Amino acid sequence: MAATESKKSVTRLGDRIFSRTATFAGASILLTLAAVAFFLFLQAWPALLPDADFGGKADDGPLAYVAPFVFGTLYGSVIALAIATPLAVGIALYISHYAPRRFSQALGYVVDLLAAIPSVVYGLWGILVLAPFLTPSYQWLNENLGWIPFFEGQVSATGRTMLTVAIVLSIMILPIMAALIREVFLQTPKLHEEAALALGATRWEMIRMAVLPFGRPGIISAMMLGLGRALGETMAVAMVLSPASVISFALLTSQNPNTIAANIALQFPESGGDYRSMLVGTGLMLFLITMAINMVARYIISRRAEFSGAN
Amino acid sequence: MSAVTSSLQASASLPRWYNPAALLGSFSLALASMTLSGFEDEAGNLNLAAVIVIGYLLYMAITFVVSRAVEGRRKSVDRMVTGLVTAAFTLAVIPLLSLTYTVVSNGLARLDATFFSNSMRNIVGEGGGALHAIVGTLELTGIATLISVPIGIMTAIYLVEYGRGRLAKLVTFFVDVMTGIPSIVAGLFAFTLFLVVLGPANAINGLAGAVSLSVLMVPVVIRATEEMLKIVPNELREASYALGVPKWLTIIKVVIPTALAGIATGVIIAIARVIGETAPLLLAAGFTASMNYNPLSDKMMTLPVFVFTSFANQGVDTQAYIDRSWAGALTLMIIVMVLNLIARIISRVFSPRG
Q1: Roughly what angle, to the nearest 10 degrees, separates helices A273-307 and B183-198?
Q2: How many CB atoms lie within 10 A of CB A145?
Q3: Is B279 close to A128, i.e. CB distance below 8 A?
Q4: Does residue B160 come out as left (phi exceeding 0), alpha (psi in the -120 to 50 range) or beta?
């Protein structure tokens, strides 16, 4: 090495430029994330000042304004997650352990197609197809199970309810969750599976004893990634939900708490001044919430990756 | 472990034809009972969803009872789980089919020559088209690709070829985190950035939209390129070094060409990902009814935003606006599917064969 070192200094100017450029590109990722936080904060700042004027749209101050949206964002996403998680585990199991080997790759591709559909198309489908389709079931739920707080109240005639939104969201986060869980399930040590089967376990017992314990961290991180997706999803919510500025657990009414992202999309184009600053501020909150969730999820995944060689 | 010994004793199992027979039986029973009980809607149509749900529940109940009697508890539970897992997969495919069907059947109505040759300028009611939106989408996605591909590929090169130590770990971690940025936040970022740089009058323009798309696109390009660079065999690099080729030329002339097909696939998938983004463009690029070829000034329409605004701001002739919205959605779906198809073809044709 030492002998070539002296010659390099002349010939490898290109090397130095190239490696600097590459390093700079890498650092630009960190810079971009910092810039996102910085510029959003810069614009959101005026809304936090005491003399901010929201043009009558948020007379009770920023906190009272943002509370229903934070609630709606979390509520809708958590329900979507509750629907999507068992389905995603089922799909992942079907593709990894139940479907015929020859088809499993093609079936995975079919599920991935769900991820390729633009969210605005989901919104259109949600409001014009899914919502009318679900309305009779909502009426049935309300009449027969109305004593449960989730199903109480006046049923929306249009189906543009929190439950419809949660169902659309769950369909949208299914592919990424199923893909991730499937990958983890496929990594289950073959020896564990074969040992379970050799002891006379049925397929389900083998899955319960070998696959699920091995895949649990994967399921948890998939849930967090799915949650992150659902929190930030904008257009489907903006189009499907019939919003109101309330905090309510009722799932079937037309008075639903809106989500942060959908509220920004609906209000931003016609906003200005301090009110626009406040919308940017809600965006900053959304950014920080999803960043935190994604960081935890990625931390769990990366920690698992270090141990994945240990059979 | 007593369960295991008991299963050895009870080794009886249902015949192979049981499953298809039970499925056929339950669904025809469900169909028959629904028809006979006159459980039809106002139009006299059978409620297909109800038939499927009842048929499925019937199948599960019958199988549970029969299997438990013949095969014992453990095998009946196994059959139940098989039924549940298969149902989960089927349930996920139904929205895909329904979505494809509705978008195609509703979108065809307005998928005509006018749609691809006219803008919405001075259009009230019927007629008009999405040419301005298609041009905008192509320009913005093109600019976003021009911004993200160099940054993405260089970052991937940094991570695979140079990255050691803390910075590389940080970058890897935050690239993953960056894939989870909500798209609306990317739009807000681009808007606030241009607001500071250009002032409130010119903040909303095509370039701002392209910047917001790049924020979403860069991490996808990095991930795809990184995966591809990692599988380039080290022997190739070492052979190149042994010939005295400097590292940067090795990367440009040996590593990148080897991984090119994979990188191209990744870039196309990234384009397909962002071409349907609505929320960031709604904020950063705005919407308009007129043609605008210049991404540096004035608002610019894009196809996803066209779908949204046609639906959200329905004018006098409601149906005309909804039809245009569906036609836009269909166009968008076709573009996304074609891009995905191209990506798959490239990766299949150029994939290294052993």
Answers
A1: 130
A2: 11
A3: no
A4: alpha
Q: Are residues A134 and A22 in the same domain?
A: no
Here the CATH number for the domain that contains residue A215 is 1.10.3720.10
Is A7 part of any domain?
no
Within-domain flag for A88: yes
pLDDT at B4 over 70: no
Q: Is the pLDDT of residue A141 over 90?
A: no
pTM for this predicted structure: 0.88
DSSP structure class, residue A256: E
The residues, ordered by sequence, that sit 6+ positions from B15 with a Cβ below 8 Å of its Cβ are: none
Tell me, yes or no, whether A35 and A177 share the same domain: no
Q: How many CB atoms sit inside 10 A of residue B341's CB? A: 12
Residues A29 and A171 in one domain: no
Q: Which of B64, B89, B100 to mutate to test the interface with A (most CBs of A within 10 A)?
A: B89
Q: Is B298 helix (H, G, I), strand (E, B) or coil?
A: coil
Residue given tokens 């489908």 in the structure block = A125
Which residue from A minimizes the CA distance to B325? Answer: A124
* Segments forming the whole domain that contains residue A33: 17-46
Domain annotation covers residue A311 = no
- In chain B, residues with a C-beta closer than 8 Å to the C-beta of A204 are 77-78, 81-82
Residue bearing tokens 């290294």: B352
Distance CA A230, CA A168 (A): 10
Helix (H) or strand (E) holding A303: helix A273-307
If one compares B201 and B155, the residue with the highest pLDDT of the two is: B155
| Closest by CA position to B214, among listed B306, B264, B146, B282 | B146
Q: Enumerate residues 89 to 148 of chain B having a beta carbon within 8 A of any beta carbon in chain A.
A: 89, 91-93, 95-96, 98-99, 102-103, 106
Total count of residues recorded for chain B: 354
The answer to whether B193 contacts A286, with C-beta atoms less than 8 Å apart, is no
Average pLDDT over residues B253-259: 92
CA-CA distance, B269 to B28, in Å (whole number)? 43
Query: Which burial class, exposed, middle or buried, applies to B175 when counting CB atoms under 10 A from its CB (0-12, 13-18, 19+)?
Result: buried
Residues in chain A with CB shorter than 8 Å from the CB of B186 are 36
Domains of chain B: residue spans and CATH: 2-109 (no CATH), 116-350 (1.10.3720.10)
Neighbours of A308 (CB within 10 A): 13
| Contact residues, chain B, for A207 at CB < 8 Å | 81
Distance CA B51, CA A54 (A): 53
Q: Which residues contact B351 (CB under 8 A, 6 or more apart)?
A: B261
Pair A143, A29 in one domain:
no
Q: Is A257 helix (H, G, I), strand (E, B) or coil?
A: strand
A30, A126: one domain: no
Taking residues B210-220, report their average pLDDT: 95
Residues A29 and A170 in one domain: no
| Inter-chain touch A29–B340, beta carbons under 8 Å | no
Q: Are residues A34 and A139 in the same domain?
A: no
- Same domain membership, residue A75 and residue A41: no
Q: How far apart are CA B100 and CA B122, in angstroms?
A: 32
Give me the half-sphere count of Cα atoms (radius 13 Å) on the Cβ side of residue A299: 6
**Facing residue for A25 by CB, picked from B151, B176, B304:** B151
Number of independent structural domains in chain A: 2
The whole-number average pLDDT for the span A23-41 is 94
> Tens digits of per-residue pLDDT, B144-160?
999 999 999 999 999 99
Nearest Cβ partner for A32 among B179, B215, B307: B215
Q: Is A54 part of a structural domain of the chain?
A: no
Quick check: A248 and A136 in contact, CB under 8 A?
no
